[in-house]
Design goal:
Layout lengths: L3 E6 L4 E8 L2 E9 L11 H23 L8 E7 L3 H18 L3 E5 H7 L17 E6 L4 E8 L2 E7 L5 H11 L6 H9 L22 H17 L3 H32 L3 E5 L6 H14 L2 E3 L11 H12 L17
Parallel strand pairs: 1-4, 4-5, 6-9, 9-10
Antiparallel strand pairs: 1-2, 2-3, 6-7, 7-8
Bound molecules: 5'-O-[(R)-(carboxyoxy)(hydroxy)phosphoryl]adenosine and zinc ion (ZN).
Length: 339
């Protein structure tokens, strides 16, 4: 039997709809919201309004690109949480309305599980290996930093996480201090290409167990930069690329040190990356080097599936559908939702 799923994602500032057939992506449409860049961060009320404007055309384009009619859809998956309440409400209400109108089951999806299960999305004609259980996933986004032990599609355990800022948040806050636009992660990544990662020595936080902390890094960076600027007001302009490279190298080092510790202690050698920060070129190449050194098999998502997208929601709903692991009762969104 062929299974066709419509996925809807609206947890933060990207409105996305995707169609997946038997685990293969037929379409994945993402509308980014430009409106936030002038505010230096996502403005929740503006995000919900933009979702309302975008959601219908985005779903329409996803269906057309996939060549699928509403009557072909077997189930609708939507992000129930975690995320911004207003943004989640738009996607969830729309999904609920469509499921009632089309008479198809509604499947709730946990956004963090979806980031991890993005590794199971297949492209048409794609025969590359999928991760096998158990594997470790370093999920690094604007709101989360977690090392997750994945024993099965819906059996996941957080073994380490941030005690304060998320890795993406650290990139964004430091970028803001440097006067870069939001989101700052991609800006730092771009600048870092031409910088010296050893230029600015920053503290490497040491947390107990496998946890992370990034707030000290941001504060240390701010104070160091202030004192350099007192000595030389042109310091930032002269060394933007070096600062970006140093920040990126430090964040990558903190992330990979803990990941390596978990891999050594558990003996798990299949390691994956997920979430918006997995688009970072420094993190991707450092993980590949480490994997070579440690003999790991590493899974790095295609850029399209690093940041928020509905294909990951659709694939998660697909596995729920196959396992009949869903309850079609509509439950309202949840801003905070454990894995
Ligand atoms: O997963 P995501 O799209 O949304 C959340 O669920 O948070 O992640 C967004 C985060 C932002 O903090 C953004 O700065 C970061 O991912 N990001 C990057 C890069 N691309 C996106 N950080 C570093 N380097 C990148 N290339
Ligand atoms: Zn996300």
């Amino acid at each position: 039997m062929s299974v066709i799923i419509l996925g809807i994602e609206s947890s933060c500032d990207d409105t996305s709809a995707a169609i997946i057939q038997d685990g293969v992506r037929l379409s994945n449409v993402i509308a980014n919201q430009e409106v936030h860049s002038e505010y230096g961060g996502v403005v929740p009320e503006l995000a919900s309004r933009a979702h309302q404007k975008n959601i219908l055309p985005v779903i329409d384009v996803a269906l057309n690109k996939a060549g699928v009619k509403p009557s072909d859809i077997d189930a609708i998956g939507y992000t129930r949480g975690p995320g911004l309440m207003g943004s989640l409400l738009v996607g969830a209400s729309f999904a609920k309305g469509l499921s009632m109108g089309w008479g198809v089951p509604l499947i709730e999806v946990n956004h963090m599980q979806a980031h991890i299960l993005s590794h199971f999305i297949r492209e048409p004609e794609d025969t590359s290996a999928l991760p096998s259980f158990p594997f470790l996933c370093l999920t690094v986004s604007g709101g989360h930093t977690q090392i997750v032990r994945v024993d099965d599609y819906f059996s996941m355990t957080v073994v380490g996480e941030t005690r304060d800022d998320a890795a993406g948040e650290a990139f964004d806050k430091i970028a803001k201090i440097m006067g870069l636009s939001y989101p700052g992660g991609p800006e730092i990544d771009r600048l870092a290409q031409a910088g010296d990662p050893g230029f600015f020595e920053l503290p490497i936080s040491k947390m107990p167990g496998y946890d992370f902390s990034f707030s000290g890094l941001k504060t240390a960076f701010l104070y160091r930069l202030r004192s350099e600027l007192e000595k030389d007001p042109g310091f930032l302009d002269c060394h933007r690329a070096d600062l970006a490279a140093s920040v990126q190298a430090t964040i990558v080092q903190v992330l990979l040190r803990q990941l390596k510790a978990v891999a050594l202690d558990t003996g798990i050698r299949h390691v994956a990356l997920a979430g918006g920060v997995s688009a970072n070129s420094g993190l991707r190449s450092a993980l590949e080097r480490l994997a070579l050194q440690e003999g790991w098999k590493v899974f790095i998502p295609a850029f399209e599936y690093c940041t928020d997208n509905a294909a990951m929601v659709a694939i998660t709903a697909y596995y729920s559908f196959l396992q009949r692991a869903y309850d079609t009762t509509y439950r309202p969104p949840q801003a905070r939702m454990p894995l």
